[in-house]
């Protein structure tokens, strides 16, 4: 924008009225009628300019938008009443007297004034330049500036002129909206976390309730079986002694009465006394082995059924693993469509019993070993095991520093990275509908990490298998 330096844009303008009525015209001057026409035209122009000046002055003084003119170095040259009101001053004169350097006195951040000046230099104008400034009361307000560079005919910058709008209320509203949005987002995230926790808690409660009921049932059945089995087992040793005595007596009869009565001889042949004397002790011994096996199974059931322990107790980790394997043994045996699953129990030397929730830990063992068996069964159906390769579960226990480590690995088909990253998510499962709930690994993770302050991790390689690693602190 170019102007004549002697023609200000704001304020009162004066024009010199030029007339020659007081001087005699030269001999070569226009005639009097022509001069009269010129004077009439000039008078009309002056009247029109005065009217425009009055209109501009009214607009300048009464508009609600603050109008300003400043030098590039920050000196305020001119201001209208609206600008004084926006900044909190009594009048434009009061504003001009008090505000001598807008960069240091007006701008909250003086660097914003420098940014304003650079934009004016590069572009020649600014639009909607929002900045914080100081109100006369000391309060910080927001304004939006629009300005242009005014140059002289030689192209030199004379000053900046433009207008200011108070946008404090708008900014406060925007800030309130942003704060409300942030609160809404935070509340939404909190609700999502709460919902997830509710799902996890619900699933854990449902699973715990089921397992608690199962544990009570198993414990009751084990108790009922245990009594008669103990009765049988306790009487087998005397029965073996009685059988041995009776067989000894029969042998003495055979020795001293080699020719028995015909009826006795007929009955002896009918019952095959020789075979009976040989096989009866073996039968009793087999019964003794069988009852011992039943007692072991009952003991395993009783150990595994301790799912409702409410306090941590010293627990034999190896016994828990053995009990779980005992219950899963039918699934490990060979079937018509796949061979036996080999279990390698590589137990290390642990520093005595480990303080933990024994029943919950057995639940984790059951979930991990059950998933390993499922993976091996699936791999078998897909022809994964060929040649000398057999389905295998490797269980290893050891201590590392102040932690006991339990590794459960299989040589199935492994998992993709996408599946591995989600295996501990609640309700996530790769099993067909009706065969999996997606709760086992999620609950196992919570039991290890939250109940025992340990860690449960998984590593897997496609085509080679997966390994779950449980780490429990020795000092709970």
Automatic annotation (TrEMBL):
Catalytic activity: ATP + protein L-histidine = ADP + protein N-phospho-L-histidine
Gene3D superfamilies in alphabetical order: 1.10.287.130, Histidine kinase-like ATPase, C-terminal domain, PAS domain
PAS domain segment(s): 52-129
Superkingdom assignment: Bacteria
Keyword Kinase: yes
Keywords annotated in UniProt: Coiled coil, Kinase, Phosphoprotein, Transferase, Two-component regulatory system
Pfam families registered for this protein in UniProt: HATPase_c, PAS_9
Domain PAC: 127-179
InterPro entries, per database record: HATPase_C_sf, HATPase_dom, His_kinase_dom, HisK_dim/P_dom, HisK_dim/P_sf, PAC, PAS, PAS-assoc_C
Keyword Phosphoprotein: yes
Record-linked SUPFAM superfamilies: ATPase domain of HSP90 chaperone/DNA topoisomerase II/histidine kinase, Homodimeric domain of signal transducing histidine kinase, PYP-like sensor domain (PAS domain)
Enzyme class of the recorded protein, top EC level: transferase
EC numbers for this chain: 2.7.13.3
Residues annotated as domain Histidine kinase: 220-476
Coiled-coil blocks: 170-197
Entries under PANTHER family matching the protein: HISTIDINE KINASE (PTHR43065:SF50), SENSOR HISTIDINE KINASE (PTHR43065)
UniProt cross-references to NCBIfam families, sorted A to Z: sensory_box
Protein name: histidine kinase
């Amino acid at each position: 924008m170019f102007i004549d330096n002697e023609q200000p844009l704001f304020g009162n303008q004066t024009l010199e009225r030029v007339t020659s009525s007081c001087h005699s015209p030269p001999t070569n001057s226009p005639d009097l009628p022509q001069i009269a026409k010129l004077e009439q035209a000039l008078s009309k122009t002056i009247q029109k300019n005065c009217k425009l000046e009055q209109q501009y002055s009214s607009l300048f003084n009464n508009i609600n938008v603050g109008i300003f003119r400043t030098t590039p170095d920050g000196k305020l040259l001119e201001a209208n009443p609206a600008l004084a009101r926006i900044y909190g001053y009594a009048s434009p004169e009061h504003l001009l007297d008090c505000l001598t350097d807008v960069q240091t006195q007006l701008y909250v951040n003086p660097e914003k004034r420098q940014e304003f000046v650079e934009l004016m230099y590069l572009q020649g104008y600014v639009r909607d330049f929002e900045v914080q400034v100081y109100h006369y009361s000391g309060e910080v307000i927001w304004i939006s500036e629009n300005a242009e560079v005014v140059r002289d005919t030689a192209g030199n910058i004379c000053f900046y002129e433009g207008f200011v709008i108070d946008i404090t209320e708008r900014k406060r509203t925007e800030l309130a909206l942003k704060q409300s949005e942030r609160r809404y987002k935070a509340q939404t995230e909190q609700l999502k976390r709460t919902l997830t926790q509710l799902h996890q808690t619900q699933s854990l409660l449902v699973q715990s309730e089921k397992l608690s009921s199962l544990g009570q049932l198993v414990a009751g059945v084990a108790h009922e079986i245990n009594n008669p089995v103990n009765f049988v087992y306790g009487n087998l040793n005397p029965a073996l002694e009685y059988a041995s005595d009776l067989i000894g007596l029969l042998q003495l009869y055979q020795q001293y009465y080699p020719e028995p009565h015909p009826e006795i001889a007929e009955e002896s042949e009918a019952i095959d006394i020789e075979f009976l004397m040989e096989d009866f002790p073996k039968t009793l011994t087999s019964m003794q082995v069988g009852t011992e096996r039943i007692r072991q199974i009952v003991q395993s059931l009783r150990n595994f059924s301790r799912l409702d322990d409410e306090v941590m107790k010293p627990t034999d980790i190896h016994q828990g693993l053995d009990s779980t394997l005992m219950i899963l043994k039918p699934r490990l045996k060979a079937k018509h469509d796949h061979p036996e699953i080999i279990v390698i129990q590589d137990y290390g030397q642990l520093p005595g019993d480990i303080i933990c929730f024994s029943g919950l830990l057995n639940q984790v063992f059951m979930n991990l070993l059950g998933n390993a068996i499922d993976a091996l069964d699936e791999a078998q159906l897909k022809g994964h095991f060929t040649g000398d390769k057999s389905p295998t579960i490797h269980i290893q226990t050891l201590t590392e520093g102040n932690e006991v480590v339990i590794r459960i690995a299989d040589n199935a088909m492994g998992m993709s990275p996408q599946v591995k990253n989600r295996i501990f998510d609640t309700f996530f499962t790769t099993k067909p509908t009706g065969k999996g709930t997606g709760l086992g690994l999620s609950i196992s993770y919570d039991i290890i990490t939250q109940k025992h302050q340990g860690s449960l991790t998984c590593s897997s390689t496609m085509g080679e298998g997966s390994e779950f690693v449980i780490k429990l602190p020795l000092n709970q």
